[in-house]
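User: As part of a screening pipeline, I want to sanity-check one entry by hand. Below is the sequence and the SMILES for thiamine diphosphate. Please return the complex as structure tokens so I can compare it with the automated output.
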Amino acid sequence: MYRFKTLLTFGQLQAGHRGPTSRYLRTLRSPGAAVTGSPPNGHQARRGYAAPVAAEPFLSGSSSNYVEEMYQSWLEDPKSVHKSWDIFFRNAQNGAAPGTAYTPPPPVSTMYPPSTQAVATTMTPPAGRSLGAPLDRRVIEDHLSVQTIIRSYQIRGHNISKLDPLGINNPDLNSEIPPELEAKNYKLDEHDMDRVFTLPQTTFIGGEQSALPLREIIRRLEDTYCRSIGVEYMFINDRDQCDWIRQRFETPGIMQFTKMDKRLILERLIRSHRFEEFLARKWSAEKRFGLEGCEVLVPALKSIIDVCSGKGVESFVIGMPHRGRLNVLANVARKPLEHLFSQFDSKLEAADEGSGDVKYHLGMAHSRLNHITKKNINIAIVANPSHLEAVDPVVQGKVRAEQFYRGDTEGKRVMSILMHGDAAFAGQGVVFETFHLSDLRDYSTHGTIHVVVNNQIGFTTDPRYARSSPYCTDVARVVNAPIFHVNADDPEAVMYVCQVASQWRCTFGKDVVIDLVCYRRNGHNEMDEPMFTQPLMYKKIRNHAPALTKYAGDKIKEGVMTQEEFEEELAGYDKICEDAYQNAKTIQNVKNSDWLDSPWTGFFNHDVPLRYPSTGIGEDILKDIGTKFSSVPEDYSLHGGLKRVLRSRFDMVKNRQIDWALGEALAFGSLLKEGIHVRLSGQDVERGTFSHRHHMLHDQNVDKKFFMPLNNLYPDQAHYTVCNSSLSEFGVLGFELGFSMTNPQSLVIWEAQFGDFHNTAQCIIDQFISSGQAKWCRQSGITMLLPHGYEGMGPEHSSARIERFLQMSNDDPDIIPTLNEDFVINQLYDANWLIANCTTPANIFHILRRQIILPFRKPLIIFTPKSLLRHPDARSSFDEMVEGTMFKRVIQEDGIASQNPDKVQKLVLCSGKVYYDLIKEREKLGLEENIAVTRLEQISPFPYDLIIEEMKKYPNAKIQWAQEEHKNMGAWNYVQARIHTAANWKRRCTYAGRPASAATATGNKFTHLTELDNLLREACNLD
Ligand SMILES: Cc1ncc(C[n+]2csc(CCOP(=O)(O)OP(=O)(O)O)c2C)c(N)n1
Ligand SMILES: [Mg+2]
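Assistant: Here is the complex for your manual check:
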């Protein structure tokens, strides 16, 4: 086994080597007749060969495939191979010294019994030697060479395929010919071209034939691997999958299109082409990021949708960048053209809420009949920001959610299509993160079709300076996705590749990449001059006919369509555009909600007035869920420490008390009971980073045996998903955001390991979460749990950067909203997101429930504690959670100070765990009568009503904000302005906290404690 592996590795290494350019096999080609023979015997792949084969001088590493096949045959039946191989394997197995296992074979006449002469004749000897001569070492060597040639084309043929429509670039950034594809390296010459060779089982080029002349072998390999399609798949470590691909590309004559097929391609190409022309004509000074140079994208996508719809897919979720987006919206998703065209009108006012977005970022959702399959399909194009590739994980999350709610466990009914630019696909790390979700149990979407619009340029940057990998698609190799490179000027090759990719996705449920090698006819946008930076390329493009011109010319010649029909088609589509253009003029305003990618039909009941909800539940339910959550399951051998955790939970429940973990679990459990799906995702969330959660109880003796209490509460409860994610923030947060977009009746939570790690997902937070509703009218209840707190753990792990979230909150610091009975709910409704820093388990229970019970959805950011998870004072009683109770936006001082408020000299406002430090210090100094400490639990939107009330209660008190974060961080900047506004600018709020700093926290324990001491002293200072 080891030896064969060594050989294979050596062979692959060889395949990766590039040597000097010289004549290669293609130059030897000329037509040759095929020779028939019996197909090679099938055998089971089985390894166990331990002889020192690699040491044999006549075996090069690249012969391994052939030798392996021989060896497998020999293992099954020693007579099935030539006697020389039989002797060789016997000698090798008996431990012959390197170089001595090989014995020259006997004459061919003695090799085969008469009945197998047909096979024998396929092993034609070299020129000048008669058939009767001994089948010598040369014959074997030549056969091995042929096997290697076949394998080399399979591995490297794509490197020399004709992919660039302009004929100037190499999509793999290398113009050299791989040495494996050079004849001189095989000791074969023109004389050998008509010799017949047996084909190995690893090729389908023979069709019905098992042997072919070398000339024909090479011709077929060239046809398959070196024309308009470059198939890159030999890195896939699954023989069946490789065979599946080989069969679909190598089988002679497999790429066939009927006249109807070709007509359809042409019609679709006409639409794609003329759409851009129409826009260019009507709005010549507008940016549209046109598709010119890759018009084939539209028929390509339509072909993918046709095939997958035929295989049962009902819903397609598409993520795509700017390039060609308008065309795809119009011609693939069938956005009404008048709506699209109206977006070009600068005089239209917005008719509904939201600040909107530019037209090439907007999304949409549409249901329609697929005319080819006659089935109904949904197509959603997900809205996205400029940030390239950021939408990838969002699309995947949305797809996963759709699959989940439909019970589509294998992704047969919902799928994603992701489009990419060549520069972005190679350059953006989130692409890699998204690929790594593709095969994970709770994140897989069971195969995505990726389509790269590879126009061989990124804005002004040449690919040679945009990536270090040969192809822009190499990132996909990490997940063993086959990659089909194809020349976009060959529409039929493109359609074929799309069909195979679609079949692949529907057969294997795995990702696949289509690399449309094309060009960009104009500058990056239509206003951009490409000749500044790519003069040679653009001189070539200027003289390069569009794909439609070439394809139409060919097809008219071929009789697929007459010239008149072609012109009618053009005129017909132009008229459609012109009519829509006229209709667009009658549109008076822009409706942002027309561009929603995830409409929640039935969720919004506008007849019911908005109401702030109670979120408490019956004590019996609290007790029931609490007990089930803390019971040791039968038949599970649990860790002793875990049993102790469960026992202490059990005792708390008995005493009508909860800690943090129980508060969270009771919120989840009660929502699950009410039919709300809860999904908690993030790094190590199942146990919890701080070992406080334990939502999966692992058996100590049996692998993969675990118990999930929250999935075993009630028979008709909703499903609870808790999943440890890959070590990604950008990808996983994007994914969960996408998941949250599908069904408003679900609580979707992403937890950061430590709050500060969210900043590697900043783009999802800035571009999607904080502004998604304003830009795209899209609501999301995505909930982020960000562990936060200064506990002396250093600059990282301490701060979840509260200040950043608050800075992006949309409530005005200078305006007190009208304080009527609807103030609270209206304030929540108007907010772009909700930000909280809770100090009690009851409050975390309520805020999680409020997320679902609110009649609308807003992202929720919760700064969650670390030390408070086990703090003896951070406990709540069932009394704070029963019916009639609700989330406390502010927890007012309720101690001694509150009983005699006039005497209070200072009102300290704070948020989060510092509260516990403050009251301890106050107690230590005996200032309970003098200082009131009030907690802001919901920081944003700012609870003006309650803070005004609290400040009025202590008319003689100074007001101070105390925080453990540095002065330029935490909530200070946000609350200062609002506290002043709440006080009608009549009372001043001072600051107690750490001084401004560049780093979020000190790395020095002593400094940490000194700083804490100072801030507590300052907060309790009454001078
Ligand atoms: C994350 C990010 N960085 C930079 C940009 C600016 N930008 C917009 S398009 C573009 C080039 C994209 O090239 P490519 O991915 O090949 O797509 P193409 O425009 O060629 O279709 C760049 C750098 C961006 N939009 N997003
Ligand atoms: Mg590009």
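Points to compare against the pipeline: The longest strand covers residues 958-966. The longest helix spans residues 259-282.
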